[in-house]
Amino acid sequence: MLLQSPILLMRFLLATFLTWVILTTSIPQVFINYTNTQVKSNRFLSDQYPQNSIIFPKSISSITESIVYYVIGHPDDEVMFFSPTILELSKPKYNNTVKLLCFSKGDAVDPSIGPIRVKELYKSASILGINQEDVTVLSYKDGMNESWPIEDIHESLKQYINLKSKNRKVLITFDEFGVSNHPNHISLYHGANAFCKNSPKGNIKFYKLKSLGFMEKYSFTFLTNIELFVDYISKLIQRFVPVNITVSFFEPKNSSTSIKIYSDLNMLACSYAAMGYGHFSQMVWFRYGWLMFSRYLTYNHLIEVVN
């Protein structure tokens, strides 16, 4: 009986993963192959191959033609928590420029690892499609016992984000719960919120990454499968009856300004490469469990903060 439990768990995980691959990758790619005129004719109108996106709402015009600033606390945050949105918003069809602003070198263990982790961040960013010149690393003190002053974060953001620029600007960071109540992440939310509040109205859009509860955080692709399956069924029913069916777990009270982004297999493979190859120093034994179970690698829920 004891031996059967791990086997059943592995079978469940494998079945869940294969279902996810079908829902996020196989079906959309087949749909593109049979409906996209460029792909069908092999005659392309640009130098970019048509890419599929699984996002809700279907259009995210609020984050296009923009400079998108990801404000993170440590090297590897960009992969562990934000890779679905980074990969999605970096797609050519949005015409965005994505930048990383990392507030620490991730050297809580020892200062000697700081330079290593900075180099790893550059490598990871490159895998995710971000140029090194678009990555900035600051020297805030890393640690679970460190709360960074809001005023300092505000000033740092003023220094690195040019509010006078006419380009559309979007700032994305953690929410007030910091994914796992990490004080560095929480500080970034409050500092970014203060920065956006004091910016000219309409000058910058501010999105926070919704922190997931324990069960959702480690559900990997299971909940996504249910959400996407219901969406496909809804689309099928809509061919005959004008009805819209949706299901979403742990929905916030205000969903009118939220964006949900789902990865497919290609995006997940890129995230694995960025973490496993880019941040090699961080690949301790428990990190593999995170890669196997974390929903953040395949799903991001951004909520707009309206000040």
TrEMBL record:
GO terms for biological process: GPI anchor biosynthetic process. SUPFAM superfamilies: LmbE-like. Its EC number is 3.5.1.89. One of its GO terms (cellular component) is membrane. It comes from Candida parapsilosis (strain CDC 317 / ATCC MYA-4646). One of its GO terms (molecular function) is N-acetylglucosaminylphosphatidylinositol deacetylase activity. This is N-acetylglucosaminylphosphatidylinositol deacetylase. Pfam families: PIG-L. The lineage of its organism: Eukaryota, Fungi, Dikarya, Ascomycota, Saccharomycotina. InterPro entries: GlcNAc_PI_deacetylase-related, LmbE-like_dom_sf. Belongs to the PIGL family. Transmembrane segments: none annotated.
